[in-house]
Each structure stands twice: as C-alpha cells, then as structure tokens.
Amino acid sequence: MGDGIVNGAAAGFSPFLLGWIVLLPLIGFLVNGAVAIAARRYKPVPLAAASEEEDVAHRHEEHPATPEPIPATPPAWTKSLPTFVAPGVIALAFAIALVNFFRMLGAGDALPVIERYWSWMPVGDLQVDVAFQLDQLSMLMTLIITGVGALIHVFSVGYMKKDEGYARYFAYLNLFVFFMLILVLGSSFPLMFVGWEGVGLCSYLLIGFWFREKANADAGKKAFIVNRIGDFGFLIAMFLIFAHLGTLNFVEVFAAAPEQLAFGGAVVTAICLFLFLGATGKSAQIPLFVWLPDAMAGPTPVSALIHAATMVTAGVYLIVRSSVLFAMAPSASLVVGLIGALTAIFAATIALKQWDIKKVLAYSTVSQLGFMFAAVGIGAYVAGVFHLMTHAFFKALLFLGAGAVIHAMHSALHATHSPRDAQDMRNMGGMRRWMPWTFGTMGVATLAIAGIPPFSGFFSKDEILGYAWSGARGELPISQGSLFGVGGEVWMLLIGVLLAAAALLTAFYMGRMMLYTFFGPNRTGEAESPHLHEVGASMKWPLVVLGVLSLIGGLFQVEADVPIVNWFAAVAIGGPDALYNFLAPVTAPAAAVMAQNIPAATVATHPAWPVLLAIVIGAGGLLLAWYLLKPAALGVEGEEPDYRRAWERILHDKWYVDEAYDRGVVRPVVALSGFFARVLDRRLIDGTVDWMGRAAQSVGMVGARVQSGHVNTYAFVLVVGAVLALFWFSGGFAWLAAS
Amino acid sequence: MELDFQTSVDYFWALLPEIVLSLWAMGVLLADVFQKGSRSEASRPAIAWLALAGIAAAAVANVWLMTVTGTGGMIAVDGFRIFANFILLLAAALAILVSMGYLDRHAMNRGEFYVLLMFAVVGMMILASAQDLILLFVGLELMSVAIYVLVGFNRRDPRSGEAALKYFLLGAFASAFLLYGIALVFGATGTTDLALLAETIGTGVQDAPLLLMMGVGLLAVGFAFKVAAMPFHVWTPDAYDGAPTPITALMATGVKAAAFAALLRVFAVSFGGLHETWVVAFWWLAALTMIGANLVALTQGSVKRMLAYSSIAHAGYVLVAVVAANAVGAAAFLFYLLVYTLMTAGAFGIVIANARGDRERVSLEDYAGLGWQQPVMAAAFAIFLLSLAGFPLTGGFIGKLYILRAALAADQVPLAVILVMASLISYFYYLRVVIVMYMRPAPAADTHAGLTASRPLQVAVGVAAIGVILLFFAPAMVLDAAQGSVAGLFIAQEALFGLSRGP
Lengths: 739, 503
Known about the structure:
- By secondary structure, chain A is mainly alpha-helical.
- Chain A is about 65% helix and about 5% strand.
- Chain A has 25 helices and 5 strands.
- In chain B, helix 13 packs antiparallel against helix 14 (about 325-355) and helix 16 (about 375-390) runs antiparallel to helix 18.
- By secondary structure, chain B is mainly α.
- The two termini of chain B are about 35 Å apart.
- The longest helix of chain B has about 30 residues, at about 160-190.
- Chains A and B meet through strand 2, helix 23 and helix 24 of A and helix 7, helix 9, helix 10, helix 12 and helix 17 of B.
C-alpha cells in the first residue's frame, strides 16, 4: 500500500508510510477479530443468558448461581495477544504520524499532498479514487486520533481485563480507528463518507457491546437510526455538489466552487445546510443529539474515544474541511453558529441535574461540541479546531477518570453483591481519599473545561468567545451576512451571550460533579467502602499523560494580540499563534473567498474585558457550585428524593426531549406504520405483490412445464426458436409488416 | 514478438498456451496410466495437482503472449484473447480444485477426468481466439465432445448418463445449425476469415444478401444454444442438474464464457456491418432470457437447479452488453464474465461442500440453519448469492453497473429497465437461500456437522469470495485491463461502422 503515486513531491514534503497509518489499525482489527473468533469456541455463547450489569468489566462472577456448566477457560493467548497488538498498532500509527508531522513542519506550507492508491469507481464522469489527502488539518486530526486513541487503548487493557469479550472489544476499537482515519484522510467526499459510515457502524457495535442487556442494544439502535437522518443530509449534499461541480474530490470541489457557484446563492447555501444536517447527526447537535447520552451504555473507554474525543467531532472536521463552501454561504454559517450556541446552553442546563456521572459528561460533550460549531459557524475555523483538540484531551481524561471511578465503585459494590448503581454520584462521595491520582487528573481536566487559566480549555474557549464578541462588533466577515433579515452582528451577539451563559453553567455542573464524587463523606456504604481502590498502572498512566496535555494543550495557540492571554506568549509551544499559523494553508482559501466577496470587514480589535469576563465566568461557576451545593448533606440513591421543584425536574428529565420525540415522531410514525401495515401493505401492496408473485410463479411454472425432460420437446423448442430467428434475419418480419 | 503468419512457425508461437496445455494433458494421461498399470483403482491426488500445474503453465504461456503481436492468421493475437484466456484458465483451475474431494466421494476419481477437462479448456481457448470460422468450429467441437463425456462421467448415476445423452443430441443439433450457418456465410462471401468477412460485408456489396442473412441467423442460433439464451436454453437445466457438480460449474463458467467471447468477436467484429439486424435479434434473446430464466428460477426447490437457471439469467445480462455493442459494452462484458466466473464457481463450490458422502444436499431445506452451524461456509455462500443478485460490496454490483452504463450509452433504455426489473425478481430466489441459512433453525444441533469440504475446495471458495469482494473495492484495475484489451478489437471497426458510440 505504501507505493502510491505521490503527487505533491514537488512541495518538498513527501509523506512517510502514510498508507501504513491507516493499514496498521486494520491489521490490528484482523488479528484481534481472528482471536475473538478463536476464543469463542472455548465458551459456547449462551444467547439467553441472564441480564448483566450495565457498565462493568467482570460480569461472569456476577451470577455464581447460574445453573449453566462452567465452560472451559480460553487459553491465555486470547488475552495476551490483543493486549499487545491492539494498543501496539495504534501506537505505531501514532509514531508514523509524528514523523510525518515533523517532516511537514520542515517543509513549509505548499500542500496538500494527495497519495493515490487505486481508482475505486470510475463510472463515466464520476471518478472516485482511493486516495488520501494529507494536509495540516488531516495531520492534526490524525495525531489526535492515534495519540489519544493509543492512550485509551492502553487504559482499556486494564478496564476490560476481566471481560469475556476482550478480543472482540479490541477488534471493534481497532476497526473504529481505521475508519476514523479513513474519514479524516480520505481525499474526496465519498471516501470520507465510507469512514463516516464505518465509524457509525463501530459506534453501534460498541454501544451495544454488552448486547445481552436489551437497553444497551436499544441504545445502539437509537444511535444508528438517528445517524441515518444525518447521513441522508450528507448524501443529498454530495449529490448537489456533484450535480453542480461535476466532481467530488476535495481539491477540485474547493477550487471550482468559488468560480462556478454564486456567492451566497441558493445552491451553495443548500449544500452547506445539508452538510450541516449530516454534521448534526454525527456530532449530536440540535435536533439530533438524543442518541449521544444513550450511547453511554457502551464501555466507558469507548465513550472517551468515540463519543468524546474523535467520532463526534467529525462534524466539526467536515465543516472546517468544507470551509470554502461555508464561507460562500454566510446565512448557512450563521445557522451553524446559532444551532451550536443553542446546543451549548441547552445541553449544559440538562447536565446541571443529572445523577449519573457519565450522563453529566455526555451532556457536557454535547454542550462543548456546540461551542465548536458556534466557532466554525462564525468563521473562526481555527478556534473551532483548537477547541476540538483541547476538548479531546480534557474530555477523554474526564471520561477515563469517570471510568476509573466506576471501576472502583463496581468492585466495591460487587464485593457485597449490592444492587446499587455504580454510576450514580449519590453512591459516591469522598472518593479522593482512595483515588488521589484519579482525583488529581480529573481536577486538572475540570479546571481546563471550566476555562481557568492557564489550563488548556481557557485558551480555546476564550478564543471562541473572543471571536463571537468581535463578530458582534461587526469585525468578522460573516457579521456582514444576514439570516431571516437580521444582520450577522446581532446573531453573533446572541451567540456570544448564549456561549457565555453556557460557559458559566459548564463550570457549575463540572464543579458539582467533582464535589459529589470526590468531596464530602463517602456514601458507598460501610461494607463496601474498604473495597474502593486506586486503579492499576495501565489505567493510571494514560490519565497522567492526558492530565499533562490538558494542562499545557492551550499553549499550542496563544493569541499574541489579545491582552492577558498574551502573558503566556513566552511559554507558548511553537511560538505565539502556532496552531493558527500551522492551519493557515487550510483556512486561507475560505478567508480569500470572504475577502473577495465581502467589502472591507473592519480590522479586529482586542479589548481586555472579554478575557476578564471569561475568567470570571469560569471561576464564578466553580465557586458557585462550591457554595450552593452541600455534598455533606446528600443522601444515597433511593433515600435522596429526586428533584421536587418543577424546573429541577424538567432539567433532570432532559427537557422531555426523548418524550417529545416519542410523542411527536416515534409514536405517530409507529401508528402510521401500523395503519400502513394493516391496510395499505397487507391488503393493497402485499395483495398486489402476492398476486404478482403468484402470477410470476405461474408463468415460471409454465416455463418449468416446458422442461419436461423429453428430448423431443426440447428439440421442438429449438426448432421453433431457430425458425423465428431465421424469419427475422431473412427479413420475413419486415416483409410481413410491409404487406 | 511480431508475428505475420507467413510461416507455420508463427502458428506455433501464437498457439503456445494451447499447445502447452494439450501436451501437458497428454502427459497427465500417460502419468496416470503408468502409475496405475492395468489395475483399476482411484488415481493418486498427484494427478489432480499435475493437471492444476498444467493450467498454471498455460497461464504462464498466456502471460508471455502479452508481449506478442500479430495479424493475418487464423488465430487472433490480441488483448481480448488474452483476457478471455485468463478467465477460462481461472474457471478451469477452480473446477479442478472443487473436483478433488468430489471425485473420491463419488468413487469416480479417474485421471481421464482431469485430462478431458484440460482438453475442454483447450477447445474453449481456441473457440475464444479463432480468427476463422472453421477454426472456431474445431474449437467448439473439441470443447463440446470433451464436455459431453464429462457430463456423463458418473457412470453409476443414471441421471448423469441421461444428462449427457440429452446434451449430446441437442448439442449435435446446434452444431449442425452452426456449421450450416458457416457454409451459407462462406457461400455468400467466399471467405471464412473473420477480418475478411468484416471487410466484405462492410463494403455493402453482397451477391446474395438472403444467403448471408440466413447464415448469420443460423450462427446466432448456434451461439445462443452454447451460451444458453432463451429459448435455446432447454438443454441447460437437465444437463446442469445431472452432470457432476464440478462439471456443472465448468459449464456454467468456462463453456459459457468461451462461447460468449466467440460470439462477441464474430458478431461485433465480422458482422459489425449487419449490426442493425442482429442487435434486434439479440435484444429479444436478452429480454426473453432475463425475464424467463428469472421467473422459472423462482419455482425451483433445488438449489443446484436454481443456480442453473441463475446462470441462464446471467447469460441474459451479458447479452445486454453484447447488444450495447460499443467499447464500453465490450469492457463491461469482459468484467462481468470475470465476476460471473468467480461467483458462479464459488456458489457451485458450496453446493459441492454441502454434501455428506455421495449424497448431495441440494434442497432448500438442507440449507436451514447452515449460517449458525457452518458460519464460514454460509458466509461465503451469502457473498456469492448477494453478488449474483448484484448487491453493493460485491463485484456483481459493479459488473451490473457497468453493463447498465453500456446499455444507456447505446441508448438501450428499455433493455436497461428490463435488466433492473429482472434483477429485482432474482432477489427473491437468491435472498430466499440466505434467509433459510440464517433465519430458519436447523432440524438438529448437528445437522450440518462434519460436512465434507476438502482443503482444495476451501481454497477455491476462498479465492472466489475474496475475488468477488476485491472486485467491488478495486474494480478499476480489472476494468482498465478489460478496456485496454478490447481496444484492439474495436479500433479497426470504428471507422467502418461507428460502433464505439459510448463516451
């Protein structure tokens, strides 16, 4: 695979084993898949096994009274091989990606490089190649996917140690990384779509990993179905692009679009809106976010990798990748920004009142994705990618930390066979005494997500807010756009206010989560609490590495001209504005399009007050949580009554969105389908089809009847056919018609 | 190497793959006899491997042939021949691999089996590359006689003998049509050389137009018999059903592909000037075959017989590419023949594997629950069936896509619609098997235990399954090769008939 044609060699940068970055996870998948199949024979799978705990690694000992015979234990290699292969291939891919990254740094910015492997679908004008596009954006995404991915694989070794589906788990996880890399490295929309669908499949498989519990399988299905709606948008957008531009390759599309499509016209706006519909599905934005919280049914490292750090950010990647198109459609961009900001605040309110630690983080992810969409919607593409990166660090860390807590909680509850929920924060409290490493690293991540300087989230979130305020003053090109007849700067002011409020809530619910989990007295129970313990080395070190990244990740992009922020310019990694400069070749075409079509956007000014406001918001949220909430007075699950006040119940019950979907969409559709099934389908369509089927079969019977087995019948048929053929060739039919 | 066929040595070079294979076949025959002497016992496994090596040697000679160019002889030396040869050799190799365990189980492991098979392949290769109608007939008969014997090879099974007799009688009938057609064409034009025929007919001056048209018509009937297009297919179900299953696989793939290659060469090249007339005849053949074969396939309870009708239906799809009669169509034609060979040989391989002892389990009920008890076998069968139906993620999808595109490029919209509708019908009987395999429980927990899939058969099925999948993900390599190999066929004709109407 490594011998593709390198078209970009002239740029002074030649990719190093690019194909292997993608191939390695695939090899890992094949090896682990083979091990999983081989391991299966040692354990006949009882399909009707009793229900298992939701998020636990060792479910087998769970039911010692199960009458089924104890099956043979699989040999040790079925665990030791995946242990080395699965994280190994990802780490190797990361190493190759790093080599490429440093080569790229040394080569300047004359890119992208397209490495073409083979032609996939040459059908007339549609030429789809299997080709990878390596530029700064895909490079950064590849580093995040393989880097954070490798850490999460290592963490999983400890987390899934006792699971009987160990090899299967790693097979899926490797396959996910493979598809995710296809998604970001593919050089055309169709190839990206292959990755897009592939990660959806892996997500489905991993959400329903413990499929014997019906709720988990249902959560998988929900994710899959909701994503189909988004995929429909993606497909329509592709059709539109091909219909109007005649190509689907990124380089060609983005070169042709500014020349062949009208700026702000209906076509490009429609393309962008359909692309965004695709993004709302994959990245869990309003109105398609409902699948992500349910997706927490999967193992926790899966939530960290797929549903926080990588897959759900694919929508953001899609928009930045298509930034030329979005720059040409300011109204569509404003829609993106507005939906992002609304999602950010909406999800943040729900996170305020959840008891399940993973649910808090799930809604927090939805909310933070909203921040990223708000950023790319107002044209701050680098800020969006920057937040994507820092979020990958701190949110992966938060999920892994939560996983560590759940792991400890579970073994404590398991020791006494307590039926209580290992994920409910009301059963935790004071965990910092047993889990200092987990507490410390999660504390760093909390400060990061709350936006406290100098932690990473401060820089990225402040940059987004700064752009929003800047846009509200009319300083961004998209400020000149309008939506529903209202000017862009008004919308941007709204976006800024919503985001600021969401940031306050973020700090508050994160403070609440930390307080209820790690502070106050322990509520796990007298008998259980001695069993609480810190995690082992394979789980601890990924937390530490992510903790360091959450701390320093912001220093990759320190804005030199923003007051207060630029105090950190001296310690900025790669100099001030490093990420901005690095990504400049990717975002430059979009900037050029806007500069060409939008008359003189004013030069951005950088007052100090937004930065101060951001710090006050972050610190204020945490302090509010500290003073308002009293973990000491909290009862355990069951004893503690659920929220009584109406607004608390609404938030706790997630604004009843699921119920609304159920009433407004699911039930009418089911009722309608029932009607169609009973009346239209059974009677009319089935009747017709059955009739046609029977008719077809009777015709077939006649044909089969000819097949009597008698040679003379056959010879007769042959002669009749031959006579007819000769009649035609001799012009007999023409003669008949003429006479 | 450049051949001008002025000396007979040139024929030696041009026929190298055929010569290698013929000599090798005789060597295999001698080896078998020397090894056994006068004893009557089963042949050694080495004989089969020796035969496979012969196929490989012929393939090597065929690779060498790619460096050779030549015009003016009775044998074509062009890309089309080489591509067709590879398909035929692939079909032969798959047939030999699936035969190995089968012959032992049916107590008919005789060295002649492989020898006859190799001679049949020599006939196919000559048929596909003949540049003269007489040589074409020689190739056809060489192939047919060997296949007649192979169909009746299971002497203990009366159905095998019956199938051979029927096939022989009707085949003789069809050969007569073909030969008479050749005679009439020669009478009308004074030549049997395909290139000369093209020139003679292209001038538009014929002494005896009726004689020529009758000759063309009889040739069309003869070919339609060999490719089993409706209504000239009547021999097919009985012959396919009665023949030893590996031979059924060879007939459905190799014989059909060779006859198709000859048909395309004769009609698209030599009779290109009569394009207007024969296209209509083939249009009806294609339409009738697609609709008829798929409808009858619906009623079949035996999977083997269903696959027989399926192969008839696929002849209809390939005929659509012939009707398109442009360079796109010819490339689609070769691509489809390759995919078709892989998926059909693979499907028959599974039918062979789903047997216990000498009892083949071909009824639909015999596949119930196979998906859970023999997951690998069932998965491979599902791949072949889905590919035959033309589902994405399989080569069958791409093959149909290209045929459809060729048909649309030639403005054959109604035929394209019929193709799609016929495929829709076919979903029923293909998917029915998949449903039975996965959704209907097996009668007992060990119903499918200990099925007899020999290692060579596993290799053949594995190769076919991987090939079918690969042709979806990387069809362009094969398609480029197919396009390159038909280019020579059409360049000469384009000026005369303007056949390359495709984009």
